[in-house]
Amino acid sequence: MIISLLNSIEFQNPGIFNVEGAAAIVFYFTLYSFMGWLLENSYSFFTKRVFFKPNFLWGPFKPMYGFAPILLVYLIPANTHLAVVAVLCFFIPTIVEYVSGALLQKLFNRQWWDYSDTPMQLHGHICLPFSLCWGVLAIICVQWIHPALTAFYGAIAPFWAWIWAVAGLYFLADLALATRRHSLKDLITDESSNPIQ
């Protein structure tokens, strides 16, 4: 099943599994993750008057917002009926959000967001009102934002070819540092709550 899915992605997006395809994915991931960071912090500012919301990574990037659009643009074939696009734009970001929240809670015993007080929520990781918002944003992304970013990428691709590996290494380093930081925080919390007698 996974092989057929990968073959389908390759058929719809020829060249995705080569160096140029990897460079494009890193480019889109970087921009979408940064836009997600701006979106979340702007929402935090307008609702709580605090711009800098706690972030898993050190840098100004929200990986969940990088993964969801990439999955959408590479999984949705061209000329897909708008109703199917709308359904995928609802479910793919919702699944990414749920898996992200569940993994972060499982690995670090902490929730970076909690929808427990929101109607129609599941384990505090997802809720219907925000899933509907993500669906609308995803449709806007697929229909208008991504085509503009694709044109922009086409213009800067020769320059990006020289630096994309550095961007990829940056994300790996940031992930390693963030994992260490949050793991140590959990260790310190455990030790302070359970002092050795």
UniProtKB/TrEMBL annotation:
The keyword Transmembrane applies. Pfam families: ABC_trans_CmpB. InterPro entries: CmpB_TMEM229 (IPR010540). The chain crosses the membrane at residues 15-35, 56-76, 82-104, 125-145, 151-173. Keywords: Membrane, Transmembrane, Transmembrane helix. This is ABC transporter permease. It comes from Neobacillus novalis.
